[in-house]
From TrEMBL:
Pathway: Cell wall biogenesis; peptidoglycan biosynthesis
Protein name (record): UDP-N-acetylmuramoylalanine--D-glutamate ligase
Gene name per UniProt: murD_2
EC supergroup of this enzyme: ligase
Superkingdom to which the source organism belongs: Bacteria
EC number: 6.3.2.9
Keyword Ligase annotated: yes
Amino acid sequence: MDRYPLGLQQYRAAKLRVYENAKTCIVNADDGLTMPVRGADERCISFGVDVGDYHLNRQQGETWLRVKGEKILNVKEMHITGQHNYSNALAALALADAAGLPRASSLKALTTFTGLAHRFQLVLDHNGVRWINDSKATNVGSTEAALNGLHLDGTLYLLLGGDGKSADFTPLKRYLAGDNICLYCFGRDGEQLAALRPEVATQTGTMEEAMRQIAPLLKSGDMVLLSPACASPRSV
């Protein structure tokens, strides 16, 4: 940002130049700052969680990828989960359609893609319990993305901890409400993280110790999510 003395709007204007010579613009309807300065025009195809040409549709407990009113794919058929991943899938589908790729090929890719290592990665689905490795979530924003829009039938066992490097963890509090969540906090900032909701928090010395405590509690429908919101020193 030091290169942009006028601040965020100057930075935005510089980045939006990418649209100037584009025949088609894929734009995020959920983020107004990424929209072209002159607004969406006929070149623009939008995607978003609730709005956009490509969006999510939720009905009777099911979530679908939807294109201009048509249900395209039930997210249950995808290996990746999480609202941020569904949003990414919408963007990829919009781009593939704009490039003229066969829709069938795009849907096959979405149903076979297993995600990137350590990024909300499903590492085990056993006895109805999903184990998710989101260890690349080493800051608060990344953990917020993992928790935003997360729905499950059972209990969420959330592993938080490490060295937050003086981060403000309070934005996480809005995602920690409800009766179906348990926090297991460890590492240098474990105490501070546990204080976000102490009545459902357990502090442990290490992540491994947290895993041992969680294992006998698990039931079908539960999820164990490692999304630490911190850097992970060797002691973790």
